[in-house]
Backbone:
């Protein structure tokens, strides 16, 4: 472009790239949030709550009465001073009967094949973690009725996945909604639109808030892992591992989907007071998997459906992996579905967003926002 | 030169711009005048690429502008807005970088602009702690930070005190002197009259007048005369070829069918007793505006 009439050297202004623009917008979002006292305080409270629940959980589990075990022959001698209520009996079949009749929590039998332990633990329907935690090293476990996780632990894992997804999606979903409407309310959006394309503005906002959400999730994950390790609850950490990894992967894309929906919804109104009227449907969408997973965490069919519905998959699929219900290809298929849905929602969201940004005053009708 | 050609725009059946054509020249400040709802803001948004026209085009030096060219514009929207909780200096640097400047260049430009606009000492303050006048100056800094090639300002002077107007005007004159076309809209016609080199009047989505203020005056002067006598001026009504529009004791304003009629009034007045003042009446921009828009 020739601008012969201009005397100022313009070497300082290059054509901004899309990535640059989005990165600048994202950085501004993050810095603005990190400077907000409300955000720092609420994050602090959330982390404190996570830490407290782990500490309280560990205190509660250690203050219960000593677990009852039936020990056979030489196995009994290795159990001295282990914090277990030991009943000595003579045969393994007798021990199995006691476990089945729930007279004892577990039976411990000699097993020369199980090196280096020399003993084997027999449980009823799940690994008796309270017994195992009393043994200095975990010996191999034989389950008489395998395939089910302890229902209490299942409930708490479901609660944890559901709650973390719900809390983060609501917190950062409303953050992005606030930030969109703030730009409309303060009218700064018109300057932004005259500076960079709208889709880059939207991309930057989603990116910035997603990074904040992942940062918070990572902080929770690290804090709870450290908490579980230092309070000696390593067995639980081991069984949760794979589902936590999948949860993080699904959360990344699921959050981008929800963030785009929140941004599009928020762009329909011009004042922060009007936000609830448009974000409520999206909030309901986030609540559905949370409620379902709490009620149906033992219902394979409901979990199976949830694990393929895009906005519920981040909770449903990790649950099924934890319960051992998902074949290896299922999370991959669900992830593909989630990716496709996320791409579709981004296209839909940016259309609504760019058509609504300059319409001030009353609420923009969705039909108008989608029109060309 | 920036040229707007055959631009039309309607919102859901309501025609906002019928067929808008005008040029704004390099190195000149052009005033854009029109009543509320006449189509000023819509025209400006289309020029910037923030809005799409239904038809027509905008060119700069005969090249059609696309939305990617928006970085060459400096824009100050009528609805003022900056991030209220962001520090002034950081915010101006942010807009510079969004336009593609390096951090260092944006910082240099911000520092010198804030200095020129006399708000440099507020650089570290949050924008919503500034006075309205200073927020206005901050807005102008945001429009200028990336050294735009074209400047478009919607009501840049509203909310400024007279000193603020002068400061901002100096900055705008500098931008124009460096070669950029500058377009600004305003309701304050006295200000427009004082500030602009060229003038565009829009009404009901159409351009009604376009030219220098002098040429508009020449076009709309109806050989009106203003006379102040020693005695009563009532007799002027009787002079042939003369229509009196205002009469107040010894003062009268009248339109003359031809210059000779005006001279007849003057010579009669001299014979009747002294003339304190006799001059062709220059219509004010406000009068011309009313006439054009009507």
Residues:
């Amino acid at each position: 472009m020739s601008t012969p009439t201009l005397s100022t050297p313009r070497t300082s202004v290059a054509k901004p790239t899309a990535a640059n623009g989005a990165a600048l917008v994202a950085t501004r979002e993050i810095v603005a949030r990190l400077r907000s006292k409300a955000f720092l305080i609420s994050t602090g409270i959330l982390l404190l709550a996570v830490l407290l629940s782990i500490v309280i959980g560990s205190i509660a589990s250690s203050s219960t009465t000593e677990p009852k075990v039936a020990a056979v022959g030489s196995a009994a001698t290795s159990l001295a001073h282990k914090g277990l209520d030991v009943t000595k009996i003579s045969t393994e079949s007798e021990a199995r009967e006691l476990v089945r009749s729930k007279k004892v929590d577990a039976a411990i039998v000699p097993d020369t094949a199980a090196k280096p332990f020399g003993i084997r633990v027999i449980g009823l329907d799940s690994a008796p973690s309270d017994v195992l935690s009393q043994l200095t090293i975990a010996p191999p476990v034989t389950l008489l009725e395998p395939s089910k996780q302890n229902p209490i632990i299942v409930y708490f894992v479901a609660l944890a996945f559901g709650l973390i997804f719900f809390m983060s999606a609501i917190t950062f979903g409303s953050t992005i909604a606030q930030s969109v409407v703030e730009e409309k309310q303060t009218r700064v959006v018109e300057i932004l639109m005259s500076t960079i394309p709208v889709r880059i503005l939207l991309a930057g906002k989603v990116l910035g808030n997603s990074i904040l959400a992942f940062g918070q999730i990572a902080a929770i994950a690290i804090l709870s892992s450290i908490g579980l390790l230092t309070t000696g609850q390593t067995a639980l950490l081991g069984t949760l591992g794979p589902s936590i990894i999948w949860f993080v992967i699904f959360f990344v894309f699921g959050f981008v989907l929800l963030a785009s929906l929140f941004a599009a919804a928020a762009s329909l109104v011009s004042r922060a007071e009007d936000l609830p009227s448009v974000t409520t449907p999206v909030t309901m969408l986030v609540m559905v998997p949370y409620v379902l997973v709490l009620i149906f965490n033992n219902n394979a069919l409901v979990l199976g459906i949830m694990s393929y519905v895009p906005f519920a998959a981040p909770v449903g699929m990790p649950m099924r992996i934890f319960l051992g219900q998902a074949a290896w290809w299922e999370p991959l298929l669900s992830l593909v579905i989630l990716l496709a849905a996320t791409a579709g929602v981004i296209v839909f969201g940016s259309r609504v967003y760019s058509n609504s940004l300059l319409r001030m005053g009353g609420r923009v009708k969705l039909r108008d926002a989608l029109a060309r | 030169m920036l040229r707007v050609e055959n631009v039309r725009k309607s919102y859901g059946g309501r025609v906002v711009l019928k067929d808008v054509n005008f040029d704004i020249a390099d190195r000149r400040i052009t005033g854009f005048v029109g009543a509320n709802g006449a189509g000023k803001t819509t025209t400006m948004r289309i020029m910037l690429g923030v809005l799409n026209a239904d038809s027509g085009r905008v060119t700069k030096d005969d090249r059609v502008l696309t939305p990617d060219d928006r970085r060459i514009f400096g824009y100050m929207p009528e609805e003022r807005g900056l991030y209220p909780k962001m520090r002034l200096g950081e915010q101006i640097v942010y807009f510079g970088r969004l336009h593609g400047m390096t951090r260092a260049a944006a910082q240099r430009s911000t520092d010198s602009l804030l200095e020129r606009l006399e708000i440099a000492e507020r650089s570290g303050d949050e924008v919503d702690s500034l006075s309205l006048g200073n927020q206005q100056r901050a807005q102008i800094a945001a429009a200028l930070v990336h050294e735009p090639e074209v400047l478009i300002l919607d009501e840049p002077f509203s909310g400024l005190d007279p000193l603020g107007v002068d400061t901002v005007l100096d900055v705008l004159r500098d931008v124009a002197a460096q070669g950029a076309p500058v377009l600004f809209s305003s309701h304050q016609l006295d200000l427009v009259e004082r500030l602009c080199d060229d003038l565009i009047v829009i009404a009901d989505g159409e351009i009604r007048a376009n030219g220098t203020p002098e040429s508009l005056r020449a076009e709309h002067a109806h050989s009106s005369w203003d006379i102040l006598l020693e005695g009563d001026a009532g007799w002027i009504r009787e002079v042939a070829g003369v229509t009196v529009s205002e009469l107040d004791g010894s003062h009268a304003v009248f339109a003359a069918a031809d210059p000779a009629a005006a001279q007849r009034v003057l010579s009669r007045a001299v014979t009747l007793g002294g003339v304190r003042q006799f001059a062709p009446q220059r219509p004010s921009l406000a009068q011309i505006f009313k006439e054009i828009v009507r």
